[in-house]
Design a protein that fits this description.
Elements (H helix, E strand, L loop, with lengths): L1 H12 L6 E3 L35 E3 L4 E5 L4 E4 L4 E3 L3 E3 L3 E3 L10 E2 L3 H11 L4 E5 L3 H12 L3 E6 L11 H13 L3 E4 L3 E7 L2 E6 L4 E4 L1 E4 L3 E3 L2 H5 L8 E2 L11 E3 L4 E5 L4 E3 L4 H15 L11 E6 L2 E7 L6 E8 L3 E8 L2 E8 L5 H9 L20
Parallel strand pairs: 1-2, 6-18, 8-15, 9-10, 9-15, 10-11, 17-19
Antiparallel strand pairs: 3-4, 4-5, 7-16, 12-13, 13-14, 19-20, 21-22, 22-25, 23-24, 24-25
Helix pairs in contact: 1-6
């Protein structure tokens, strides 16, 4: 997604320059969010494709870059081929975090290939285990349940979203999932998986056993910085970039999940693993590669769908912050504000739509704010 957005940014300023995209995936660029959302709600598969090739860009799939030689502006492919560049974008994303005991038939859910594999199983089987209680885990658990599958979630925390939501909201969401029929093994983790025919037997750290037809894991990613590091590019929780998305090597840029950038609204460096950042950051990187000098001072938002619940959120989220919920209907519709040192640092728009820009402006205000000052600050509900 980041690379596709970069192509768009380049083409706004340069309609004839040679663009080559190298991807280890077997499929051309596509939108990732539908993999856990729309494609399970009958969104046609044709809707996910980015159609990057229509922007006069060459795409080489199933292709891996082995190394970068910044002194000679070349990249070496695993095939032995060597290519030259004038400007290079690293949109290497993240490496999937895996369990320490081998794959054992686990679907580490991240790509369109993973979706096709799980969809094929779901057409024949009924029992599924989902490891992880983050975005991927909660969304795919909801998607499978809405497709009449039996789902059990396993994660080390006690509640869904407990690292982001205030405790009472996390309790509500977890109860909501239980009411939808989702099973839980919480405060626990998978110790081993045994494969017997078409069945999988999961044994947890606390000696609980679960027999299932398929295992899906969504336990996060780590920024893929290996290629950058081997080329002498500075990293630290991602590839460090300046306000123009350049690395310490002037002709090399980075964007997307792998990039660590300074955000002036929050006053700190951040790394964001969400669609909005992938698209915006890639676009700005592409423009700057084509000659613009546009600063990336954008604060991305993220969103999630969980059955009939949904939210958009922008900023920082820590339930240990001072949290002020402004509910129109408790747990059904409202805005939750996260404050630190008298400033709004995060805004959670719970079943409230069309307010991200206003929330972003609020984060930029110096305050100081007391929680009561925020009552009714973002009151308007708009259609999703």
């Amino acid at each position: 997604m980041t690379a596709d957005a970069a192509v768009k940014g380049i083409r706004e300023l340069d309609d004839s320059g040679v663009i080559l995209m190298l991807s280890s995936e077997p499929d051309p660029p596509y939108s990732r969010p539908p993999l856990t959302k729309g494609l399970w709600k009958n969104t046609p598969v044709e809707k996910i494709w980015k159609k990057t090739e229509e922007k006069n860009a060459e795409i080489r799939l199933n292709t891996t870059v082995k190394s970068i030689d910044p002194g000679n502006n070349t990249v070496l492919l695993s095939t032995g081929d060597k290519l030259t560049y004038e400007k290079l974008l690293l949109a290497t994303g993240g490496k999937t975090v895996k369990l320490p005991f081998g794959d054992n038939g686990i679907i580490y859910y991240r790509t369109y290939s993973d979706y096709k594999k799980l969809r094929e199983i779901a057409e024949k089987k009924n029992d599924f285990a989902v490891i992880g209680g983050g975005f991927i885990g909660t969304e795919i658990a909801a998607a499978l349940t809405m497709n009449s599958k039996k789902v059990t979630m396993i994660f080390p925390g006690k509640l869904i979203g407990e690292r982001i939501f205030p405790a009472d909201l996390a309790e509500y969401v977890t109860s909501y999932y239980k009411d939808k029929g989702v099973g839980f093994i919480t405060g626990d983790s998978v110790n081993t998986i045994e494969v017997s025919g078409e069945k999988k037997k999961l044994i947890t750290e606390n000696s609980k056993t679960l027999i299932t037809d398929a295992v899906i894991a969504g336990i996060g990613i780590k920024p893929d910085t290996a290629l950058a590091e081997s080329a002498g590019i500075i990293t630290g929780n991602g590839i460090l970039v300046d306000e123009f998305l350049r690395t310490n090597l002037a002709s090399v840029y980075a964007a997307g999940d792998c990039a660590n950038f300074y955000n002036p609204l929050l006053g700190k460096r951040i790394r964001v693993e969400h669609e909005d950042n992938a698209n915006k950051m890639g676009y700005f990187a592409g423009k700057n590669m084509a000659g613009a000098e546009t600063t990336y001072d954008y604060l991305p938002f993220f969103y999630s769908d969980m059955f009939e619940l949904g939210y958009e959120a922008v900023g920082e989220f820590d339930p240990e912050m001072e949290v002020y919920p402004d509910w129109k209907y408790k747990y059904k519709e409202g805005v939750v504000y996260y404050l630190a040192e008298g400033r709004v640092r995060g805004v959670l728009l719970w079943n409230v739509w069309g307010q991200v820009d206003e929330a972003r402006k609020l984060i930029g205000e110096k305050g100081p704010f007391k929680p009561g000052d925020l009552k009714g600050r973002l009151p308007v509900k708009k259609e999703k």
